[in-house]
Write a structure and sequence with these properties.
33% of the residues lie in helices and 17% in strands. It contains 3 helices and 2 strands, in the order H-E-H-H-E. It is extended, with a radius of gyration of 15 Å. The protein starts with 18 loop residues before the first helix and ends with a strand.
Length: 64
């Protein structure tokens, strides 16, 4: 809302992971510069994420 000067967050994107990969997943991360303190604290990373797109990367840690 503009009057409150706050961000409005809507989750609109999806990622699909097969059941086989899901069983191997040990963790995941959304590289969102305003929701991930490590991304926010790294100014170069934060600026790169904001410049690249309004869609932020998602990574999975998969045991192979």
């Amino acid at each position: 809302e503009r009057r409150a000067k706050r961000y409005f967050m809507a989750l609109l994107d999806y990622i699909m992971v097969s059941q086989d990969l899901r069983k191997r997943c040990r963790g995941w991360r959304i590289w969102h510069p305003f929701d991930d303190p490590a991304c926010f604290d790294d100014m170069d990373l934060r600026d790169a994420l904001l410049t690249a797109s309004d869609h932020f990367p998602v990574t999975l840690d998969i045991e192979i």
